[in-house]
Write a structure and sequence with these properties.
With 88 residues, this protein is mostly helical. It contains three helices and no strands.
Length: 88
Amino acid sequence: MAKKEIAALNTTITANTAALGGMKADDPNKSITENAVTSDKAERKKRQDKLNKIIAYDGASSGFFSDIAGLEANINSGLSLLLRCFWF
């Protein structure tokens, strides 16, 4: 979804930048279009930064739970030792 939104913003930025190239300095729409380009670039950066964070998290998250089996074995071993101590 984010990639499509970024692509849509890129298309809008390109179109508005091209439109700016054809506008005369005194065109009343020039400042509006310039503001739109500036705003779209800021929004694109925000979305790209967010996407980069999601991609980084995705790459790191696979290892978050990789040691669960080892922890479970240690807990079960500790429980087993505790139960033996209480029953003898």
